[in-house]
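Morning. Coffee machine broken again, so started the prediction first thing and wrote up yesterday's gels while waiting. Chain of 484 residues, entered below exactly as on the submission form.
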Amino acid sequence: MSITHPVCLVTKRLATREELTRVLARQDGFRLVTPGEADDLGLVILELGDDLEDDFESIASLVSDPRVGEVFVTSRQKDPDLIIRAMRAGVSEFLSQPFRSDEVLAALEGYARRRRTARAASPAASIAPAVGGRIIHVMGAKGGVGATTVAVNLAVLAARALSGKAPETDGKKAGKGLAKLNGRNANAARDVQAMGGLALATGAPAPAPATQPLAALMDMRLPQGDVPLFLDMEYSRTWADGARNLGRLDATFLRSLAERHASGLEVYASPDAGDDLNAISPRAVKAVLDLARAQYAVTVVDGGPYADELALVSMQEAETILLVTDLALPALAGARRLLDDVAAVAPSVAARIQLVVNRMSAQAGVDLTEAERLLERKVFATVGDDYGAAVAAINQGVPLCEAAPRSVAARSLAKLAERLAPAAPASGNGGAAPGMKAGGLFARLLHRKGDDTHEPNRRGMERGPERDRDGLLPHGALLQGARG
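Came back before lunch.
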């Protein structure tokens, strides 16, 4: 059965729309759609006008819109800097005006070819987001609350459980973590070649992996997260290499970017400060996560203490979202800000956030009931306080569940992993707690005197009335008011 690709035209001039419509009519496999009537906008061709800042805000909204496959832009300007800026914003093609039919048709054929390749490489991803593996997104209320410890141990426990391997303590790793702060090492290329990197370079078929991949851990703290330090691992590539090369992204390429841990866990390192982080678009993050879902039974994302556009894409893709905090007032205030930020732009995502209280101790001075009042939802799980064992495990580069499996924290994490194992979380453990309102001691942490606003805890997310309440980002005012 032939596939017809939807195309949405967002133009400033009637002449531009008419000319593009004539070109599309001569090309088989494409059909025009309008924003208000289509769930799949497919290819969006946007015409740049005089207000470039407004146009680039629309581009940012479009490339992160799950209804959009790719974005082309067209303009009468041929400034190389403008073209580069558009490509960095996530645009796939730049169509110069006046149009040349052969160039437009070549761009359309390239789009159709990429869609066919993506569909063939990841058939599971085109069925439904719920089909395939599960994604667990872990974020911290602030830095230092132990979110990476939770993410790393949940991922290792999942890998062990799925592969049937018993936990092993590797005493030889003690003290090695501190010696490898630089992370990357050319020697790690041996594993990349074993996973198909050599085949990518030569065009030969990739060798089959020794075992079926079962669990993955993706470090999405930007820039340069700490997951490799926690597992005493070196790496030569990161998941961002796939996000910047969507035309090449398939299962073989994705797995060539991972490093294999002794537990069987496949680890994707975070890009560092030397990478071009601006070239990573929300659409690219979604593509990487969709492919990971098709490849792994469980993918754990260490998302960091952020609710920016990239983190929101991961949260939307995830079946489970864990917000890790401790009972210190700065951490609880940070958790409150994060919950408010996500609720402001994606209420359906915020409703799925589950609270995990780390370093639970009776000596904290704040009990769970008070924390639940502040955060207006129930606590999903607690992790016992064993700070010394956790730090020792990090310094050894060994997961806590292996370095000190009998510690109170490791036992708590094992119970949390068991709770997350079913297809759906137990009812009544998460979500808003009716009637809970922040007040008293906590009120001073959230608001300035006479001011009901706060500075959001995020890296790049702006809040505004134009945002779509049921999505991560607005679908773009330009789409809503496109002129014919």
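The two ends are 32 Å apart (CA to CA). Going to sketch it on the whiteboard this afternoon.
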